[in-house]
Specification:
The chain is α/β, with parallel strands linked by helices and 361 residues long. Helix 5 links the parallel strand 10 and strand 11. The chain starts with a strand and ends with a helix.
């Protein structure tokens, strides 16, 4: 099948550190190529792929040369032009247009967009179907007007829980995100610490993870990025706990840097306050043979096999009790959960069925 893969352009593929949407698009692209499909990947400069690459921007937005990215906006009297940094909106529109112009010629059987809602408006202008993976974008109510306007187009949810954000969309399948298993080797040997891996944002619940670890008498490792809008939350709720030696903040780690923590942790704690549409870190932890302790929100109950690969809890008290039961979880059961349901190959097979369905006469 001739597939146009429209990736985000915030990071090159595969991303070196943060960039979950880019990582999923990269994993899917490479797995589809391995299955024999003709994939054209529209992505930012610096991308590495076995597919046919169309680099629509010279750099990814997050890795754009700093001198250009931080250039002051000012009027140049000599040229008469307003000078300044590159405009991300303009670059993304150009990125989408380059894909859609080629799709309009009949070059592709299907376009697969990982670009939030921004490619939807082209859906009535090209003959081939545009499949959109939501990546949780429907949780933001501001996106609903455009999603509703194009609700007839084929959408793929990452979990059944994700559909609750906007149930009236035309969901053609649920296809969980998949990972490259060889990047996450299993370890049966665990240490005593608990791990939180993710953005240090209020909805992710790192402060609740700290409370659970303290009450359970375990050390906690915090790995993740602090976004500017959440610096106040970090300073008030996280930073005061970093001075007593029981909580270690290791910052934002690249995937290879995070894997040793995922392999050694007694459990990874996901006690978020929102209905997360998936949980890529949760799957990565399970691949490493590590159990999960997660709140009963969003997709995490769909990832965990209760009592076999982790525990779903409704309170801090239950999470503390779950820590006491971690000895009952077998690392090989966690690994098998991912091999069966959340590998890149399983994801690619799921999307093969999606593409076949939307292109059928």
């Amino acid at each position: 099948m001739r597939i146009a893969m429209l990736a985000p352009i915030n990071w090159p593929l595969p991303p070196a550190g943060y960039g979950p949407w880019e990582l999923v698009a990269s994993n899917l692209t490479e797995a589809l190529v391995a299955l024999g499909h003709e994939v054209t990947l529209f992505a930012a400069g610096g991308t590495r792929t076995a597919a046919t690459l169309v680099a629509t921007t010279p750099h990814a937005l997050a890795t754009w040369p700093e001198a250009e990215r931080t250039r002051r906006r000012e009027f140049d009297p000599g040229s008469g032009l307003l000078e300044g940094p590159p405009d991300a909106r303009v670059l993304e529109q150009l990125h989408i247009a380059m894909c859609m112009e080629r799709a309009a010629t009949g070059e592709f059987d299907v376009v697969h967009s990982h670009l939030h809602v921004h490619a939807l408006v082209f859906g009535r202008l090209v003959d081939c179907p545009i499949v959109t993976t939501l990546h949780g974008s429907a949780w933001n109510r501001a996106t609903h007007p455009i999603l509703r306007a194009y609700r007839h187009m084929p959408f793929v949810s990452l979990s059944d829980a994700e559909r609750r954000f906007l149930p009236e969309l035309n969901y053609v399948a649920t296809v969980p995100n998949g990972i490259r298993l060889d990047s996450f080797p299993m370890s049966a040997l665990k240490e005593d610490f608990l791990l939180f891996a993710g953005r240090l944002a209020p909805e992710k619940g790192p402060d609740t993870a700290i409370e659970v670890a303290r009450r359970a008498g375990r050390r906690l490792v915090l790995a993740g990025m602090v976004e500017p809008q959440h610096q106040g939350f970090f300073d008030e709720r996280i930073k005061p706990h970093l001075d007593d030696g029981r909580v270690d903040f290791v910052g934002l780690l690249s995937q290879p840097e995070l894997v040793p923590y995922l392999r050694k942790a007694a459990a990874v704690v996901f006690l978020g306050r929102w209905h997360e549409p998936f949980g890529l870190s949760a799957v990565e932890a399970q691949a490493c043979g590590t159990p999960l302790i997660a709140s009963r929100r969003g997709a995490l109950p769909e990832i965990i096999v209760e009592g076999r690969t982790g525990f779903v809890v409704d309170s801090v008290d239950e999470a503390v009790e779950a820590v006491k039961q971690l000895h009952a979880i077998r690392p090989d059961a966690c690994r098998a959960n991912v091999e069966t349901r959340f590998s890149d190959a399983a994801m690619a097979r799921g999307y093969e069925d999606v593409y076949a369905g939307v292109t059928a006469p």
